[in-house]
Design brief:
This is Oligogalacturonide transporter. It contains 22 helices and no strands. By secondary structure, the protein is mainly α.
Length: 518
């Protein structure tokens, strides 16, 4: 039995799972950036909002397109002596962590010219994916056990949630102690997270488990093909080719539809949430903000509940349950919006707060199930390519998140402008057309795309049974088994999940290397 088979087949201890939580917990550094950077630049540093939004948009866009490069590097770290000594995921984290620390600190240096902040933001958003790409790839990297993966996904969600909640609470206290005027409080708070986040990141990195170096984790041979080495230009072409060629894998195409549908409706809802509250429900965001603390605690409970449901029912069934629950809630919100003029304001506030808090349960199910299913996609890829490329898929997903966020932001702005949305208007001056469009964007987008996701789950045949067949076949081939000895059941499962003939799998294709004839 190969070392990778033994490593992936072992059960993970709870110590390993809990130390993995330190990695998403370290994301408080990035949460600080997302939450306070724009305020820091526009208020204490007095940079115009137009310039700030432009430089942040440029930084995030460039970072989004650099992300697949980090996935590419992480997958191929075993081709270096450093990677073989330290580990390919651990090695990538230990390279990215100090770079992330340096450019994170430089983000908060005051009184610098605008070009400085543009350059530093571009570099920071180019470095940070070296961390989150690895973290998101670890559930499938660390184990093949379905239960352990579900628990790792839950731990990932809880770690990130606890980090965000702790940041909110600690920041509120520190701003009360140090004040919120001038650049010093922001700088000092950011430095606290710089140190704490980096320490958590390094400790978490040193404790992760990963697949050892063998023929399936050394991807350099597949990159080279018949060539002695791959040059810089060849590497760039390979990154682009690997980003696109995964679309040839049927399971990934189905997963991609599920991911994009839920990501899009969650982004649209988030973008116009405040507008919906103000102009459709005729409330203020402050009137429904009291549920925030409870929603966080409720959300943590939801993650644990969904981990148990996913373990028992599987990812696709859990996704459907979460989606149907979400659809029911937004039908309720739609009905509330239609009757808002005939209800007391206190009633509208109470009902909406209850419904949007319960959305935490549905949303948690959707996100956890989608993340859980994503951890199985690299297993299909291994059967197709004969290689383990968890980083490739984590990088692609991170890039798509940036693209969806950017496109949705632009479309929401274009649509609202087209229907006559008035900036700075109060609740009495938006036209009925604007109110109607907000209502159907907020509720309709969620309902329609949740239904699309549900339909796509029936095309996703990657479940616990087919996954077991897949993993067993990969282990057999990895240990020297012949493709000619495949059973008929295994052939059918592999061809259904891969979307190509069995004989074209296990590296007999050009999915990794465009020049490989198969």
């Amino acid at each position: 039995m190969s070392a990778s088979t033994q490593a992936a087949g072992r059960k993970l201890s709870w110590v390993t799972k809990l130390t993995y939580a330190l990695l998403p917990l370290s994301f408080t550094m990035s949460t600080m950036v997302m939450t306070w950077q724009m305020i820091y630049y526009t208020q204490p540093l007095a940079i115009s909002i137009g310039i700030v939004t432009t430089l942040l948009a440029v930084g995030k866009a460039i970072g989004g397109f650099i992300t697949p490069i980090w996935g590419y590097i992480s997958d191929r770290m075993y081709s270096t002596s450093f990677g073989r000594k330290i580990g390919r995921r651990k090695g990538t984290l230990l390279i990215a962590a100090p770079l992330n620390l340096i450019f994170y600190v430089l983000l908060w240096v005051p009184s610098m010219p605008v070009w400085y902040y543009l350059v530093i933001n571009v570099i920071y958003y180019g470095v940070y994916p070296g961390i989150n790409t690895v973290v998101y790839s670890l559930p499938s990297e660390m184990t093949d056990d379905s239960k352990d993966r579900a628990q790792l996904v839950a731990v990932q969600q809880i770690g990130g949630g606890v980090g965000g909640f702790a940041l909110s609470m600690l920041n509120a206290y520190l701003f009360k102690v140090w004040g919120s005027t001038g650049w010093e409080p922001y700088f000092k708070i950011a430095m606290i997270y710089a140190v704490a986040g980096t320490v958590l990141l390094v400790i978490g990195a040193m404790c992760i488990k990963e697949r050892p170096y063998d023929e399936t984790t050394d991807i350099s041979s597949a990159d080279k093909g018949d060539a002695e080495k791959v040059g810089f230009f060849g590497r760039l072409v390979s990154v682009f080719w690997n980003f696109l060629s995964v679309l040839r894998i049927k399971t990934f195409r189905n997963y991609l539809g599920i991911f994009l549908s839920q990501m899009t409706f969650r982004t649209v809802r988030g973008q116009i949430n405040a507008y919906f509250i103000m102009f459709v429900l005729l409330l203020t965001p402050a009137e429904v903000s009291l549920s925030t603390g409870f929603s966080f605690l409720f959300g943590m409970v939801c993650v644990v509940i969904w981990a148990a449901i996913i373990t028992k029912l599987g990812g696709m069934r859990a996704y459907r349950i979460g989606s149907w629950f979400t659809i029911a809630l937004f039908v309720g919100i739609y009905i509330l919006a239609l009757t808002v003029s005939s209800l007391p304001k206190a009633t509208v506030t109470l009902v909406f707060t209850i419904l949007i808090t319960l959305f935490t349960l549905g949303n948690s199910g959707i996100v956890n199930a989608q993340t859980y299913v994503q951890s199985f996609v690299p297993d299909v890829d291994e059967l197709v390519t004969g290689k383990r490329r968890e980083g490739q898929y984590a990088g692609i997903q991170s890039t798509l998140e940036v693209i969806v966020n950017t496109v949705v932001t632009i479309l929401v702005g274009v649509i609202l402008q087209a229907v006559g949305f008035k900036s700075g208007a109060d609740v009495t001056t938006q036209s009925p057309t604007v109110v109607t469009v907000l209502l159907y964007m907020y509720c309709g987008t969620v309902v329609v795309l949740a239904l699309v996701g549900i339909l796509l789950t029936y095309r996703m045949h990657l479940n616990e049974h087919t996954h077991d067949v897949l993993v067993a076949e990969s282990a057999r081939l990895r240990n020297g088994g012949s493709m000619a000895d495949v059973t008929e059941e295994t052939r059918k499962v592999v061809e259904d999940l891969a979307g190509m003939p069995y004989e074209k799998c296990w590296g007999h294709n050009n999915v990794i290397n465009a020049t490989h004839k198969g």
